[in-house]
Amino acid sequence: MLRWIYYLTAALFLSACNPNKNTRVNPESLTFQTTDSSKLFFKNVRSNYYDLEELSEAQLEVYRFKKRLKQEDVPVIQLALVNNWRYDEAYILVEPNMAAGSLNDLHLRWIDGEKKTQGELKFEGGNKKAHLLFASKIYDRLLSGCTFELMKGEEWSPIFSSTIEEEVFRITLFDYYRLINQI
């Protein structure tokens, strides 16, 4: 009997530690608030997967996924996770590389092959809410299995075409959602 209780407790513990990676989040309801426990989990468990840049004057910690693509000749959109520990807040920053163009020119098209639908996403504004909304919309479409293209000049070119690029984006935003207690 004790063995069954042990197995049940272990199963409950493991399921609590591994939330569903396909969980959808309503970007309009997000706040930037962190808690001591969410920061502790991130620092002790997840931060090992990230490069840390400390901005001591601003008192911010910027985390970028270690396995991100660092090429400059292929368009890539990366995310940086920013911990503002003074105010118990965290932010997500959209960081396109040189080949993807400037942040203000980000214009993506998503294509859902199964439903035969498509749409466009444009980065609008530069505040923390705009970064989060843009990244969350991409995240939602990635979970739906959509493919993406980036407007470069007058042409569309593929983006998120490698599994690594897609996973780095998804994992970073998933970790961010955990840090602000949304997953």
Question: What's the N-to-C terminus distance?
Answer: 33 Å
Q: Count the strands? A: 8
Biggest sheet layout: 4 strands, antiparallel
State the helicity in percent bands. 25-40%
**Gyration radius over CA:** 18 Å
State which percent range the strand residues make up: 25-35%
Oligomer: single chain
- Order of the strands making up the biggest sheet: 1-2-3-4
* Low-confidence parts: 10-16
Features:
single chain, globular, 183 residues, 4 helices, four-stranded antiparallel β-sheet, alpha+beta
Give your account of this protein's structure:
Residues 10-16 have low confidence and may be disordered. The longest helix is centred in the C-terminal third of the chain and has 17 residues, at 163-179. Helix content is 33%, strand content 28%. It has a 4-stranded antiparallel beta sheet. Strands 6-5-7-8 form a 4-stranded antiparallel beta sheet, covered by helices on one side. Strand 5 and strand 6 form a beta hairpin. The chain has 183 residues and is of the alpha+beta class. The chain is globular, with a radius of gyration of 18 Å. It has one domain (30-179). The relative contact order is 0.18. The protein starts with a helix and ends with a helix.
Topology:
Layout (H helix, E strand, L loop, with lengths): L1 H16 L18 H11 L3 E6 L4 E6 L11 E8 L4 E8 L10 E6 L4 E6 L5 H16 L3 E6 L2 E5 L3 H17 L4
Antiparallel strand pairs: 1-2, 2-3, 3-4, 5-6, 5-7, 7-8
